[in-house]
Amino acid sequence: MTNMSIVKSSLILVFTRPIITISNIVIIIFSLILFEMTPGTIILFISSIFAFLLSFTNKALLLELETTKTS
Question: Is 11 domain-assigned?
Answer without folding.
Answer: no
